[in-house]
Amino acid sequence: MAFVEYEVKDKYAVITINRPEALNALNSAVLDELDKVVSGIDTNEVRAVVLTGAGEKSFVAGADIGEMSTLSKAEGEAFGKKGNDVFRKIETSPVPFIAAVNGFALGGGNELAMSCDIRICADSALFGQPEVGLGITPGFGGTQRLARLVSPGMAKQLIYTARNIKADEALRIGLVNAVYPLSELMAEAEKLAAIIAKNAPIAVRNCKKAVNDGLQVNIDEALVIEEKLFGDCFESYDQKEGMANFLRKKDDPAKVKIVDFQNK
Ligand code: CO8
Hints:
This protein is α/β, with parallel strands linked by helices. It has 2 domains: 4-198, 2-enoyl-CoA Hydratase, Chain A, domain 1, CATH 3.90.226; 201-255, Lyase 2-enoyl-coa Hydratase, Chain  A, domain 2 (Orthogonal Bundle), CATH 1.10.12.10. The chain has 11 helices and 10 strands. The strands form 2 sheets. The protein has a 6-stranded mixed β-sheet with strand order 1-2-3-5-7-10, with helices on both faces. It has a 4-stranded mixed β-sheet with strand order 4-6-8-9. The protein starts with a strand and ends in a 13-residue tail after the last helix.
């Protein structure tokens, strides 16, 4: 593919948005390729995904302003839907996505990062929703996900002012989980992906669904969602072997082993 690289490593994969000449800005071609890559992930083989941007300067500097500049109302809405559909695919993918934010995460870039499960960033990263300075609203989920991730008040302040924030402030408001020197970011992201990939995949998948779906409903309905996904883990090979391993260890610490979860 011209703009999106996909590399499978040891039970995890790395997706790289690769349009560095435009700071990895998202045009229709990039969104189409990202859609294909995300749809094509073999979730039996791949248990976590790291998403990053090519180069040392930018994760994604937003939706492509040149492409958007001449859109009609209907085309603008369709472009918003195109981005929303791809980002929602990431958000609802059975595998966890880690955004490794290696620089600018502006507009659609911040929105892409927010569709991931976990965000970590370089100390050089810059986050923001600059859309109102361009005469538009955030249109790839920014008004919705930022308000849910940080707080409605903080989201509104960032969106209404179009102010960019640095990594330390992103950490303080909970937009990212950790900040690393740029040179260490990918190693840290891949280490995190590898740790997740070693755990029982059905359980991790059900945790993602439980958190995501539970946040959309009231607490009583949310707990029912949790109960069903908890129950769904039982009778799996991974549940039986994970628990048997704990019990073997109790009998005889020498029997300790790392469980090779099978995703079944
Ligand atoms: N779109 C298109 N091209 C871009 C974008 C972008 N978002 N960002 C950077 N580029 C291009 C530049 O035009 C430039 O290209 P060229 O070399 O051909 O002139 C190249 O990338 C390098 O950029 P700069 O020379 O500007 O690099 P600087 O280091 O000087 O500045 C900045 C970096 C600060 C990131 C600057 O490029 C910038 O401000 N970019 C725009 C950031 C922005 O406003 N992003 C939000 C866009 S709006 C959005 O994302 C809406 C999402 C929802 C869409 C809903 C659809 C309806």
